[in-house]
Amino acid sequence: MALEIKQGLKTTQKISLSAELKHSITILTLGRFELEKLIIDELEKNPCLVGVAKQEENNQLHYEELKRALQNSYNQNDYTERYNDIKSNEEISSNDQKREFADTSSTNSIHSHIENQIAVMRLSSYEKECIYTILQYIDDTGFLNTDIKTISENHDIHYDDVKFAIETIQKCEPTGIGACSLQECLLLQFHKLKKKPKYIEKLLTEYWTEFQKQNFIKVAKLEKTSVEEIKNAFRFIKSNFDPRPARQFGQQSNQVIIPDVYVFKRDGKWICSTNDNGLPRLKLSKKYSNLIKSIKSDLNEIHSKETFKYINENIKSAKWLVKSLKDRDKTIIKVVESIIKHQENFFENGVEHLNPLTLKIVAQELDLHESTISRATADKYLYSPRGIFELRYFFNTAVESNSGKELANESIKQFVAEIIKSENKENPLSDQEISEKIESNKGIKIARRTVAKYRESLGIMSSSKRIQRF
């Protein structure tokens, strides 16, 4: 057989991002703390950048106006505590980092943690974009809170592509991430074990119901073994598997959250404003701008050429950073304005009035790519009279009632919590009974398994466990 060598031309399309554009995307993705660090680092290493402190008087006036607007947004006593986070005038004027904050735990870095792992995987740009889109459905405990079909329909992504993306997420650390249920979460952790103890897999599959009820005697009889053997398997699961794999990202004690945006009511209208307190305003150094003009006239000497190149590169870098920061603010404000438009009922009346909203809807409305919205909402917070919320909190899939009205799944989750809170403590409601209550009160049919998933994401035990607490 003879080998034939042929020459030919093949045209391919490839999108190549410039270093500046990559830098701009990174800046959009950064949370508040990372952004502050980047600005400080750039000020230290780039002599062509100058940090300008804002005029104290103007800043104080802006703060007072914002404080009044926030306080006037609600007159209800229920929300008095929400205003306690705002500092006094004396604290504001004496502190060089003027910021309003909430002393609470950060629970959103799990998304960044997964993104970092996905970035180094050998995947196509399309596969990565699918994964980044699906990450919005990973809740703070690490569970996938929406089914594959719904994600596929919401984002026009093929069912198999969604499934592949979820399976890829499930390969990330911490093990158990991206599971649709507690059972799947524990099984993912089991399959990662090199040595698999006896009875573990059966407890998590064939005897799942018995496992949840801790019915060791029944399992022991069926397996023709001792009760102690089954108890040992149960203890192994309890001590080695994590039912909330992302909990480590939500237990940073006393983590200060600084809002990126304020949302408040002024003249009967909800508006938003960026929180620039604590961030130096950057501008180009006049000294180096003038210096490079003088060097241009004499580039014959070697040192002049080297100096020109050094200053010119730093000026370009400084200009791009200033532009990227402005673009970041503009994009985040646009996204928050869209959130206000869709979620005005929430700001007025609370979580029960949260509307279904997806990144895709906002992306289409703003004529931006969905991945841009995803980056603009990652690790970003808004401060409102109802508290501090991560921007991704406002994106919820829809649950349709019998009347055809759509409700956000977050509001249903809240209703589950309220039902459990008001239940008879001596006779807790089962997931099926909670499902029936939701249907009778809200007109929404929700499967028992869905109730269980909501309950687990809220950190609430099953009825058999809840009764043991009283």
TrEMBL record:
Residues 85-107 are annotated as: Disordered. Gene3D superfamilies: Homeodomain-like, RNA polymerase sigma-54 factor, core-binding domain. Residues 309-466 form the RNA polymerase sigma factor 54 DNA-binding domain. Pfam families: Sigma54_AID, Sigma54_CBD, Sigma54_DBD. The keyword Membrane does not apply. Residues 85-102 have a biased composition (Basic and acidic residues). GO terms for cellular component: DNA-directed RNA polymerase complex. Residues 104-288 form the RNA polymerase sigma factor 54 core-binding domain. Transmembrane segments: none annotated. One of its GO terms (molecular function) is sigma factor activity. Belongs to the sigma-54 factor family. This is RNA polymerase factor sigma-54. GO terms for biological process: DNA-templated transcription initiation. It comes from the Bacteria. Keywords: DNA-binding, DNA-directed RNA polymerase, Nucleotidyltransferase, Sigma factor, Transcription, Transcription regulation, Transferase.
